[in-house]
Amino acid sequence: MPYKDKEKQKKYLKRYREKKKVSKSLQKTQKNQETFSRKPFCYVTKTGKTFRQEQLDEFALKTEDSKQIEDRFAKQYGTKGLIEPLYNPEALASLLEINTFHARCCDVKGKDTAGLGFMLNSQVDKPSEEKKKEINDFLTSQRPSVTVLFSRMQKDCESIGYGAIEMARVGNVPTGLPKSLHHMPAHTIRIHKDRNKFAQIRGIKTRWFKRINYDKDIDCNTGKESELGSLTPKQRATEILWNTDYTTRSDYYGLTCVAPAIGAIYGDLGRRDYNIAFFSNFGVPAYAVFISGDFDSGPEGADGKTELEKTISKHLGELIEHPHSTLVLSIPTRVAGEGKVKIEFVPLSTDVKEASFRLFRKDNRDEIMIAHGVPGYRIGIIETGSLGGSTARESTEIYKRSVIDPRQIVIEELINQEIIWHENGFDTKDWKGKFAEIDISDEVHEKEMISFLFDHGAMTIRTVIKHYAERFGIEDDPDDPLLDMRFVKGMPLTLQFIQTAEFKSVVKSLRNKLLERVKKSGKSDNDIRDREIIKAIGDLGELVKMGEKSTKRINA
Asked: Which residues neighbour 252 within 8 Å (Cβ) at sequence distance 6 or greater?
């Protein structure tokens, strides 16, 4: 001990212990770093197979040669005046095939927007029933139905950024009534720089179309403009209802809302491909085998493995078949006699990697859903809150108001302004088309509210019947006045039921009998009982009076 003073000795010992503790920690860290920075001789899977680090590196995620989808319009953008979209529409359409969540979101939004039904609502006091029949005949004659056609168009808008519906007129006359509607796959269409005509390529053929109600004729084969009515019906192009998901970057096309999450889609694709490629070839790695010293791995065989690798694989395979048995492994050395060889089996935990992959997948999924604005449960993902509850109802209401309602308004205005109200359409403003809304009602909550209102006198029996008549097949009886009663906690709020002649006659008869009984019996010795009888007689009299007032009020 360098110090005789006890206080100095304590301080010296304390510093010495701290230095020793730090030294051990550094040694442990260095050892771990050496273990994982060294290159293993090979890896061993849970099935006993061996593979080298070089084989593992082959499956590392890296940039591959370009596999972009060629744009079929590439040679026509400069020559025919067509405008190139911000992203290749065919490449965007292919994303639906490689990501489940993106595909489900596009499908659900398309159906929630336009796939639940279409109806006509009157806008005036006395709308034309003849026009309604004419419009309904047009809508119901479409095959597939109007809801299917427009839900497909909306799905194109969600996945690509724009969508189109072709409309043909009776006799293909420029001012003829609308006859039929047809969905056009968005990735096959490009818009012209003048915004009034469109080109579609299918195979080797190109076909031209014009914007709905454009005041010129367009040649369907050449795209050349002419005066309205100057072309023959066979030459004349049909019309297109064009819808886009607006973006500030283009005056011609829209942009899919998932564009900011394209990286997440490809990230998830890379995760999937890595897992499939690696685990289908090697299984789950269990150990990394480190061999150091003067050892001889032997020559490589026809299968690319050395004798030492085969020996390790064979012995570990036997160990897997017979657990808890002893492993005896002989390692050949380069020189005769006893060589200095060190073997380490380092267990590999794939739980962390698997957990990180699951988190990576969940992050990608959430980013795609956020980009679409779709709640998880709408695409089949059920998640409970931190307290075990659910926010499904609130999420659906937000989704309906912020995502679905604005999309419905855009398509409804397109149909109303260009087909129903336009002078070249059905030329009537008596009726307005409306898509059915998604049901956000919570049946349990609704029943609780109805019960609450009824128990507090805010609703009559007849109101409750009308509310649930269609759902449960309940019939109303307009001749039954008892159905107009209100109750508070099970007690009638008003005595409207005292209005029948039978009831009043019974009450009067009972009152008269009680009076006669009292007169005949005279005053009894029990004053309390007498007072109770007199009070009962008075109450019956009041019931009769209230019944008469109620009857007069109802009759009035």
From this structure: 83, 85, 191, 193, 195
Please tell me whether residue 21 adopts helix, strand or coil conformation: helix
Burial of 503: CB neighbours in 10 Å, binned 0-12, 13-18, 19+: middle
What element of type H or E holds 277?
helix 262-282
> Residue 78's Cα: distance from chain center in Å?
40
- Nearest partner of 238 among 136, 170, 311, judged by Cα: 170
* Distance from C-alpha of 39 to C-alpha of 41, rounded to nearest angstrom: 7
DSSP state, 72?
A: T
Report, as an integer, the average pLDDT of 48-74.
59
60 pLDDT exceeds 50? no
Structure tokens at 544: 């009769």
The 8-class DSSP code of residue 418 comes to: I
Q: Go through 306-338 and write b for each residue having 16 or more CB atoms within 10 A of its CB, e for each that does not.
A: bebbebbbebbeeeeeeeeeeeeeebeeeeeee
Which tokens belong to 327? 């492993």
| Amino acid at site 318 | E
Per-residue pLDDT of 477-495, as tens digits, reads 888 887 888 887 777 766 5
For the chain, how big is the Rg over CA atoms in Å? 42
Q: How far is CA 171 from the centre of its chain?
A: 42
330, two tokens: 């002989």
pLDDT single digits (tens) 111-144: 999 999 999 999 999 999 999 999 999 999 999 9
Domain assignments of the chain as residue spans, ordered by start:
1-37, 40-66+258-365, 89-257, 441-493, 495-556
Q: At what angle do helices 351-372 and 100-114 cross, to 10 degrees?
A: 20
Q: Is the dihedral of CA 132, 135, 138, 142 positive or negative?
A: negative
DSSP classification of residue 219 = B
Q: Token pair of 517, please?
A: 């009984």
- How far separated are the first and last CA of the chain, in Å rounded? 115
DSSP letters for 98-166: T-HHHHHHHHHHHHHHHSS-EEEEE-SSS--HHHHHHHHHHHHT-SS-HHHHHHHHHHHHHHTSEEEEE
| Cα–Cα distance, 217 to 239 (Å, whole number) | 10
Query: Do 282 and 45 meet the contact criterion of CB atoms below 8 Å apart?
Result: yes
Exposure string of 367-386, with b = 16+ CB inside 10 Å and e = fewer, is bbbebbebbeebbeeeeeee
